[in-house]
Design a protein that fits this description.
This protein is α+β, with helices and mostly antiparallel strands. Helices cover 26% and strands 22% of the residues. Strand 4 and strand 5 form a beta hairpin. Bound molecules: 2'-deoxyuridine (DUR) and zinc ion (ZN). It is an enzyme of class 3 (hydrolase).
């Protein structure tokens, strides 16, 4: 079977994870509208609450290069079901990606699940909610 190139990119990103504490490696591959790919991996810290997930690393890496328009996000980990992004990432994804953008969740067994920001966090708190009357 032919390999999905974005899943292969997410696997490569996963190998860069810095996870001395959890030993749980996650990779993300974020495709821009221009076809470029930004890798993200989880980066942990001895101060555990400072750990950054793969999904946010990918989005923040792209933002740090001034890139704001994305086509898809693919996330992979060694999980039984396709990896499930945490609540913090769902919030950040909802703000930085179009509501309908394809998000592919995957695991190393070859299982995948296609979703989107609006499905991952229905009713997300967004910038419009901050507007005064
Ligand atoms: O979707 C997920 C879920 C978890 N993690 C990371 C955070 C932490 O480093 C480790 C264990 O929760 O996995 C991610 O990067 N993405
Ligand atoms: Zn997360």
């Amino acid at each position: 079977m032919t390999k999905n190139p974005m899943i292969e990119e997410a696997k490569k990103a996963r190998l860069k994870a810095y996870t001395p504490y959890s030993k749980f490696k996650v990779g993300a591959a974020l495709k821009t509208v221009d076809g470029d790919i930004y890798h993200g991996c989880n980066i942990e810290n001895a101060a555990y609450s400072m750990c950054n997930c793969a999904e946010r690393t990918a989005l923040f890496s792209a933002y740090a290069q001034g890139i704001h328009a994305f086509e898809s996000l693919t996330v992979i980990a060694d999980t039984d079901r396709p990896v499930s992004p945490c609540g913090a990432c769902r919030q950040v994804i909802s703000e930085l990606c179009e509501a309908d953008m394809p998000i592919v969740l995957a695991n190393l067994n070859g299982d995948t699940f296609l979703t989107s920001p609006k499905e991952l966090l229905p009713g997300a708190f967004l910038s419009d909610d901050l507007k005064e009357e």
